[in-house]
What does this fold into?
Amino acid sequence: MAVYSEPGRGTTFRVYLPRAYIDDSRDVAPADPRTVMGGAERILLVEDNVPLRRATARQLTELGYRVLEAEHAVSALLILAGAEPVDLLFTDVVMPGTMDGLDLAHEAARLRPGLRVLLTSGFPGVRGADIRAGGYPLPLLNKPYSRDALARRIRRVLEGEDEQAFATIV
It folds into this structure.
């Protein structure tokens, strides 16, 4: 950061930020006039940011999914330990508390073998290839994402087009 100031003339602040090199190409689909719609699957959405969780839940509901919401990993585990069907765990990676999204994915695999998982993160240092639960990579949707990118990626994971969408215990 640089600051330049002259009495009677004003002050100029210059902030220099490093360029982020994030490969979001997997999340960017070619323009398609058709809207990808969801199905009747149940998605467990785990997000500690309340406005973002509500907005994402609304988008998923509008796409046709049934959405279960959890604010953190512990409340998500209570849902997963119950009898409620869940087809996909869609969780933020970075969350407050003792468990993050990776820990949650690992524990979800123990509770519900074969559960599909999609992670999301807004931190530039988190990359899909680096996301591992039990030693296996998991798919990642980078924040911020568009409604269309969300719809397409959720569909890909649910339909098995994302080979690594299962949390596995080693």
In short: The radius of gyration is 19 Å. The first strand starts at residue 2 and ends at 6.
